[in-house]
Amino acid sequence: MERKVALLEQAIQLDAFYPFLQDDMAGGICLFIGTIRNKNQNKDVKSLDMEAYPPMAVKQINLLIDQAGAKWPIEKVVMAHRTGPLKIGDIAVLIGVTCVHRAEAFQACQWLIDRLKEEVPIWKNEYYEDGSSWLVPHP
Question: Of 12, 13, 49, 103, which has the maximum CB count within 10 A?
């Protein structure tokens, strides 16, 4: 299984990752693109900051990829996450999974984003009109 893992302070560009995912054996490439929305917890979100502990985050992402590879026949996988300041509409996370069959690509992609949100040390601070709030999705 081939992989690309990235924590980026600059914008995530789909063109930087999609060509890597293409494969003549692939019957399915599943992409998840998570973007910054303008509302959360019934508040208007103005912007946010993403922070990570890079050595641990990259290690944990690679562990998740290994676990997904043991569950599904993944040919290629990309996991890229933004850090730093983000605006509404910016891409915060991109996950791509290439498999021979589409069902496995969908399943692995969903599992990876769910586990990333639960297990990887990446935090966001949302800014609202009335202040900000750190959102910690996992203990």
Answer: 12
